[in-house]
Amino acid sequence: MNSATVTSVTTIDPAEAKHFGAMAAEWWDPKGSSAMLHRLNPVRLGYLRTQIDTQWHGDETGFTPLAGKRALDVGCGAGLLCEPLARLGADVTGLDAAAENIAAAQIHAAASGLSIDYRTGSVEDLADATYDLVTSLEVIEHVTDPAGFVTGLARALAPGGLLVLSTPNRTALSRLALITFAEGSGTIPRGTHDWNKFLTPDELTPLVEAAGLRVIDVRGLAFSVAKGFVLSDDTGLDYFVTAVRD
After folding, report:
1. pTM of the prediction?
2. Domains annotated on the chain, with CATH
3. What are the pLDDT digits (tens) for 21-80?
4. What's the rounded Cα separation, in Å, for the pair 240 and 201?
5. How far apart, in whole angstroms, are the C-alpha atoms of residue 153 and residue 134?
6. Pairing of strands 117-120, 214-224
7. Are 20 and 77 in contact (CB under 8 A)?
8. Cβ–Cβ contacts within 10 Å for residue 48, how many?
9. In this structure, are strands 157-168 and 131-137 parallel, antiparallel, or unpaired?
10. What number of other Cβ atoms are within 10 A of residue 129's Cβ?
11. What is the pLDDT of residues 146-195, one digit of tens each?
């Protein structure tokens, strides 16, 4: 596995890296500190699959729509998204600020028989590498410079490539659901979120466009008592932004 060192130019917040690194041992425990991410993963993957098939006109029934393509997941944690992307056929690179998460990701991938290039560092460390698919889900609200972070993601995207972001919206609903309830009850570890760092769609979309990409979809991620997390036209809690490099 390759390893990258963090450069002097970085959007990593050391306190955030420490917070998430402390949860490394529980990333793959569906009842542990990352339980919320496990519940989010099915709807995330469904949304990603739709965007992938639309972008590359794939066979919706095929098992490996990313065969022959390179994918990058920034803020990958211990690989909850990287492993499904690898199973979809991609040559996957996972990047995370916390070395503890990368170590856990490497161990789990090896036990799963998957070859994934995990690296510790910041998106700014990727130099001239480019990828067909770049994902960064529930990450931008934890960086020091959202505009710089988006610029780094865009720089890593190849021509014709697809960028998918997700993040909580800065609304009264997200404060109530994610901080007052989820963190207050211990469903999410306390201190995971700073509501003031959440971005609205009207704030995030211009950052993506300023980085030279074209936004093609904004879709809400809502919670249903009956179904759990679902895609929605309501972006009040959380949302996806998908963009392309033409």
Report:
1. 0.93
2. 14-244 (3.40.50.150)
3. 999 999 999 999 899 899 999 999 999 999 999 999 988 889 999 999 999 999 999 999
4. 9
5. 7
6. unpaired
7. yes
8. 25
9. parallel
10. 12
11. 999 999 999 999 999 999 999 999 999 999 999 999 999 989 999 999 99
What radius of gyration, in Å, describes the C-alpha atoms of the chain? Answer: 17
Place of tokens 């904004």: 218
> Tokens 């996806």 identify what position?
240
Contacts from 177-181 at CB under 8 Å and sequence distance 24+?
177/223, 177/237, 178/237
Pairwise CA distance, residues 193 & 164, whole Å: 21
